[in-house]
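Section 5.1 Outputs to date
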Amino acid sequence: MNGTGNNIRILVAPLDWGLGHAARCVPIIGELHLRGCEVALAADGAAAKLLAREFPQLQILQLPGYAIRYGKMGMLPSILLQLPRIFRTIKRERKWLDELLKKEHFDVVISDNRPGFWNSRSHCIYITHQLRIQSGISEWIDDRLQKLHTRYMNRFHEVWVPDFAGSNNLSGKLSHPVQQMIQPVYMGLLSRLVKKQEEKKYELMILLSGPEPQRTIFESKLLRELKSVSAKVLLVRGLPSATDQSDAGENITVCNHLTASQLEEAIQQSELIICRSGYTTLMDLLKLRSKAVLVPTPGQTEQEYLAFHANKENLFPYIIQQEFTVKAALQVAANFHFQNSFAPEDFEHYRQLTDELLESLKRS
């Protein structure tokens, strides 16, 4: 074990909107722990369960989440209706951290998209790939959202962006706004998965994820579609706590949930993936150099933009959910010229960043 982090205490708190924020923090947590830091985690619900499976030896403090739910009306109207609760949660998480730091010392606090998780007693770092939030309504609204988000980000000592600063990037204008209101540190891409050589076992893997009710709506559509598919299929429902199983057919293997190692293996055993266009999912697919067709969650403007940008950069094609059929997905994939412009070393840059962080803490 490298001892550069001896006696340095670090608290990491990912957002609870889906599992992507917790999953992409795994490489950072692992690196800090490997370097001898005393790392504690703050999470709740599914994110806490994921982190507990990855790091059973680390302390997990129960930090209440945002519990945001997207309705059928789309992301922004749903978020607007829940704004009072969101602002209360931001205040509550700030108070939670302040009370904790009165009792315990942490040299560094790392917040993945929790804007209230900062305090003057510690060196605070904010991780996000959305310097400019896409509303899907107008540039004027996007400007207001960018200013609001920047106001929160400016309270942190550093802002880390899991992407690259140059033209070869994954997040497009989400992390590269025309008007940059903050000076972020671009940390390269992040993925907890490891590229291996696996023999192909499935012609198609369907990876469901994301907020309800859209997860269930898409699953129901897929189950109807799969009745006419003869290919060997793996359907992962994305329900860690579920005990029931869908009866999809003899040629279809159904799993409620896969661990990180099982997911890593299954993706590489599959010829083609059908999945949502969440940012962490895209990073995982690029790390494993897998082919996929993206189906963004309807009304979730970030996923819709990421799918469009990935298609434009020849990374992955996409189909909107309303027009989705398995046959159409297979046809789109067959006609798409997949180009993965990211190298394995592009997923290792965060190590240098953690080195620099620990060295600066030692000097101070």
